[in-house]
Write a structure and sequence with these properties.
six-stranded mixed β-sheet, Rossmann fold, nine-stranded mixed β-sheet, Protein-Tyrosine Phosphatase, Chain A, cell shape, alpha/beta, ATP-binding, single chain, 449 residues, UDP-N-acetylmuramoyl-L-alanine:D-glutamate ligase, Mur-like_cat_sf
Length: 449
């Protein structure tokens, strides 16, 4: 394993275990560091806790006493732990750096890193980029926010292997020296303000993806996102734009006939099977990153002619009695649902609702022209009902949950209707994750008679 040469800390607090904390603690112990672990929910009997104790970690479980900071030089924080956590706040007051395990992964990776972030589209773009490289016979591994801990993959990476990382704002907020060879910025809009507190904090976290890049690196960015255009002026990297509207002689673009990279035609647009304008943005970003990493046109064509979407992200589920069911459970905000609604030119029955974060839904109004009915659930059902009335939708139903919503939507549907789960809300009022919500939708569709 590569040594952590540029990691000048010997006494480290790993705050929060879960998968990323366990991986970070294990790696740091393997590197000969002194590691203290603090987790409120972990138990001495947990398998990962036992293993870390055997490796020499100091464990403080069940609470967050301030004494965990005694003698500590740096905190490796689980991304899910807020910055207003008392331990984090106290550390910052003492001048103790707070990082995430992505910082460790970046230092351990021997091969080039492709880092992908944005408010929407990260998982689709990460998956497309990875598959394009695989189909081009380029060595590649994938990790990060996609569900695979980056440190575990990075420490076993060969120098000729690419590492494609999906990166959230939670992860990027805690980086210091992290530097991808290729950074991809898909888009940015207001999100996760309950965590970041301000719009400025959120943007800055996203922009950390390019803050350490040099003229030898690349920044692939959305040329139609005005916020990004202003921000990337600070970047020293070579800038590679992508656009669904205009030719980009230095980047990726499309017209009515084909998609291109710079002046080179990559493939016919009619042969791409993925739906939605937003997915064309994801495709162009992937093409840019993949071509910069040596992908072939043949490899890209093979992926785009077969790829129908990532699970829970405008995923086609089934054609049942001429009704088309789509699972877009990952749509946890209005922008994602806007993009889903824009993907169809046929009647839609919209299934929506979830955690109430205090926001309204009027920004969906211009995108409701194909919505013929709504089936609503969760804490925001009444707010979404108001939206439906403003859109003059006469058939609006409020139901118990996603499972009952599928049945009600089917009962009021007709042939050629799209029955679309695109909640525009987080799932946590009724479900542990958006994945659980989507899986329940899929199961309910498959059990229709």
């Amino acid at each position: 394993m590569k040594k952590l040469i540029h990691f000048p800390y010997e006494s480290i607090l790993v705050l929060g275990l879960a998968k990323s904390g366990t991986a970070a603690a294990t790696t740091l112990l393997e590197q000969g560091k002194k590691v203290r672990i603090n987790d409120q929910n972990a138990k001495e009997s947990d398998a990962n806790v036992k293993q870390l104790k055997e490796m020499g970690a100091e464990l403080i479980l069940g609470s967050h006493p301030i004494r965990v900071l005694d003698g500590i030089e740096v905190i490796v924080k689980n991304p899910g732990i807020s910055y207003d956590n008392p331990i984090v706040t106290a550390a910052q007051q003492r001048g103790i750096p707070v990082i995430t395990e992505i910082e460790i992964a970046g230092q351990l990776a021997s091969g080039p890193i492709i880092g992908i972030t944005g408010s929407n589209g990260k998982t689709t773009t990460t998956t497309l980029t990875t598959e394009m490289l695989k189909q081009s016979e380029k060595p590649v591994k994938v990790a990060g926010n996609i569900g695979i801990v980056a440190t575990d993959v990075a420490k076993n990476l060969h120098p000729n292997e690419n590492l494609v990382l999906e990166l959230s704002s939670f992860q990027l907020m805690g980086v210091d020296q992290f530097k991808p060879k290729i950074a991809v910025l898909l888009n940015i809009f207001k999100a996760h303000l309950d965590y970041h507190k301000t719009w400025e904090n959120y943007k800055q976290a996203k922009y950390n993806i390019f803050k350490n890049q040099t003229k030898d690196d690349f920044l692939v960015y959305n040329a139609e996102d005005k916020s990004l255009i202003e921000a990337i002026k600070l970047s020293k990297a070579q800038k590679i734009p992508f656009s669904v509207k205009r030719k980009q002689s230095e980047g990726a673009w499309l017209d009515n006939e084909a998609i291109y990279f710079k002046e080179e035609k990559i493939m016919e647009r009619k042969d791409i099977v993925l739906l939605g304008l937003h997915n064309y943005e994801n495709i162009l970003a992937s093409v840019g990153a993949a071509k910069l990493s040596g992908a072939t046109n043949e490899g890209i064509q093979k992926v785009l002619s077969m790829f129908t979407g990532v699970k829970h992200r405008l995923q086609f589920v089934e054609n049942h009695c001429e009704r088309l069911f789509y699972n877009d459970s990952k749509a946890t905000n209005c922008l994602a649902t806007q993009k889903a609604l824009s993907a169809f030119n046929q009647p839609i029955i919209l299934l929506a609702g979830g955690l109430d974060r205090g926001n309204g839904f009027d920004e969906l109004l211009p995108y409701m022209k194909h919505v013929k009915a709504m089936v609503l659930f969760g804490e925001t059902a009444s707010k979404l009902e108001n939206l439906g009335m403003k859109a003059q939708i006469s058939n609006i139903r409020i139901t118990k949950n996603v499972q009952t919503a599928v049945q009600e939507a089917y009962e009021i549907s007709e042939p050629n209707d799209v029955i679309l789960l695109s909640p525009a809300c987080a799932s946590w009022d009724q479900y542990r994750t958006f994945e659980e919500r989507g899986d329940i939708f899929i199961q309910a569709v498959h059990t229709l008679v």
